[in-house]
Amino acid sequence: MAKILPFCALFLVTLIVIYLWNVSNSINYELEAKEETLLLSDYERSQRGDPSNFSQILQQVKHITGCLDRPMEPKIQQRGDYWVLYNYIVAQKRFKCHESVTITTLGDFTFLDNILPMVERWKGPISVALHAPGTDFNAALDAIKHLRCHSALVREFVTFHIFFPSGHMPPKNLKTYDFEDDHECPETLLLPNSTYKSAHQLVFPINLARNIAREMAQTHFIFPLDIELYPSPYLIPKFLKMIAQNGPWATPRVYPLAVFEIETGQKIPDNKTQVQAMLAKNLAVPFHHNICAQCHDIPKALKWQKTAETPGLRVFYSAKRKGEYVHWEPFYITTHQEPLYDERFTWEGQKDKLVQGFVLCILDYDFMILDNAFLVHKPGIKVKTMDERRQAMTDLTDMSIKTEIMPQLEILFGRRGGCEV
Questions:
Q1: How far apart are CA 210 and CA 127, in angstroms?
Q2: Per the CB 3.0–4.6 Å rule, which of 143, 161, 201, 308 could disulfide with 112?
Q3: DSSP category for residue 323
Q4: How far apart are CA 407 and CA 2, in angstroms?
């Protein structure tokens, strides 16, 4: 009996410690959640131009980055064999360099339906580069007019740049709109069933589009995304708060996010907890799970998926693009200081992001994977298909990388063990 009493006392103390630890964690979580709610309400007020405590975070971001404001002026410029109409249709809101994060994205008029879910979740600046050769130009303007007519968020936040090959100019009588006139907005939008691009078998210069959208972004931090990727809500204020609390930093870095695909017909998840529930029911999978899992799985992906959601934004893991992840093609928040994309690559030839990843590896970048934030592809889980034309162009891309691009990169940036394209 005497031996049992100390054991019972120890057991009781252990239970009390566990209980107090759980209570403490619960209180901390509730405090963090309350603080996050205040942050988001401050951010919403700042977007409306009202005074808020969020301005203190922005001032700290400005101090840390030392960034300079960037103008938003329309201009026409030639880029190689392409004409570019920069800031052709501009957003109503303007941002100083430290005040937000800009999504930079790209496509043609057939992809513009993705702008609405993107801007509704982002509620911040978006810079879009649209490829519009020949008669696709007028179709692009029709689609933009429709979006701006029916969405105040598009009018406020989305700026469009249009580009086309010099050998495929728009029609002589270009359709023009007064984009500030929101009258006569049709409920339906009639667009061509096919594109000028496909009829003339043109390629899509995807990296040129990425660079056009990026160069016009007003903010220091930018988020290059494919147009069918939608971010988790309120990422901007959470990210800027994290930067304000943790900067400045001595090493070069970018901030990747986990990316997922969901089944057709499913509601796009709003938070990590919802993502985890969908993964458990096989309603969601990691991006390109059936096509090239190693290209997009973040390091420690399973741990990320099992780690409980917490308020705010944190760095989940710091990784290098080496070893098992030597061919990783992450989507990440970055800045204007990072290298531009190699404009020799096309969407049809694939592998368009690999070279930039290789350069960041050579420059010894840290990839600071974010927790509690993610991207979701437009609903519909992809499966691998065979396209003979794309495969032929991919073979040409592989040859170009081996014989031309890699030797040039070694001269420009040198070598680093473990870095590969």
A1: 10
A2: 143
A3: G
A4: 79
Question: How many whole angstroms separate alpha carbon 88 and alpha carbon 199?
Answer: 25
CA distances from 364 to 254, 284, 339, 351 (A): 11, 33, 13, 21
Helix axes 406-413, 354-362, angle to 10 degrees: 30
pLDDT, tens digit (0-9, with 9 covering 90-100), for 155-195: 999 999 999 999 999 987 776 655 555 556 777 788 888 99
Q: Note whether 210 and 129 are within 8 A (CB).
A: yes
Identity (one letter) of the amino acid at 334?
A: T
pTM for the whole structure: 0.90
Given a contact cutoff of 8 angstroms between Cβ atoms, the answer to whether 355 and 401 are in contact is yes
Highest-confidence segment of 178-187, 234-243, 349-358, 381-390? 234-243
Q: What is the pLDDT of residues 11-22, one digit of tens each?
A: 555 555 455 555
User: What's the CA gap between 140 and 132, in Å, rounded?
Assistant: 7
Name the residue among 176, 201, 200, 219 with its Cα closest to residue 85.
176
* Contact indicator for 187, 223 with CB cutoff of 8 Å: no
**Beta-sheet pairing, 253-256 with 332-335:** antiparallel
* 209-212 contacts, C-beta under 8 A, 24 or more apart: 209/106, 209/107, 209/129, 209/130, 209/131, 209/163, 210/104, 210/106, 210/129, 210/341, 211/340, 211/341, 211/343, 212/79, 212/84, 212/86, 212/106, 212/129, 212/161, 212/163
The pLDDT tens digits of the residues spanning 139-162 come to 999 999 999 999 999 999 999 999
SS3 367: strand
Residue 50 CB neighbours (<10 A): 10
Domain boundaries, the chain: 75-209, 251-413
List Cβ neighbours of 310 (8 Å cut-off, separation of 6 or more): 29, 32, 371, 372
- Give the position of tokens 């990747």: 256
